[in-house]
Amino acid sequence: MMRARGQMVSYGGAVLIAVAVFLLTALTGCADSSPRNNPLMKKGDRYREEGNPELAERFYRRFLEKHPESPAGHLALATLCDESLGNPARALYHYNEYLRLAPEDDPERGTIMGYRELVRAKLRNELNALAAAGGLPRVTDEASAAEIRRLKDQVEMLKRYILAQQQRIAALSEARTGAAAPPVPPRNEESGGGNVAQPEERRSRGGGQYYTVRAGDTPARIAQKFYGSSQKYRIIMEANQLRDATALRVGQVLRIPAEREP
What we know:
This protein is mostly helical and 262 residues long. The chain has two domains: 34-132, Serine Threonine Protein Phosphatase 5, Tetratricopeptide repeat (Alpha Horseshoe), CATH 1.25.40; 160-256, Roll (Membrane-bound Lytic Murein Transglycosylase D, Chain A), CATH 3.10.350.10. It is 61% helix and 5% strand. Helix 2 (39-49) runs antiparallel to helix 3 (53-66).
């Protein structure tokens, strides 16, 4: 009986010890969850105190790679770049990140906002000094005109690409349905804005004809006009050595051969 009671006391003591160890571990783990207790942050703080901001920056960055949403990590890098590394642009970025991530009721927000304004003023002064010393590139009128011409050329290329894609879509649609809407006649600018006369809508069984491409034309539409079927667009493409149905250009002259006999 005494031996059994002693064994129960020993077992109860072991349980109490295990519970105490668990609670201690839990409390320690909670304390270690603080960013400042992170090993990377600790190393960064240590190198910063030792006057080695480059190494401190390395460990702060490694911490942020693992915890990119940590306000403390951004604040550490912001103050380091501001005070020790002389990089106001990077400091401004990390100050902004800190203010974005930190709670609205953070008592340090007002102070950090003041630091951010000082960094902005420092960065503005550096840029003004660099511009005054001729360190910033100046854009000349010739360079501006060349850039404008380049942008206009790109716009024209995009317009031609869009038109070609629209023609390609129309050709595919007409080839599937076998029907094509008549093209809208372009305006004749030289004759005071009147419409250009339409070519005869008849089948060509003679020696062939010539046709000038207009806006909105596709091989399928032209085949529908001359042959009565958009399915015969390949006759026109082969006669004019067209590899792509979207390769037509407004003003291009096409040879319309006689329709092949079935």
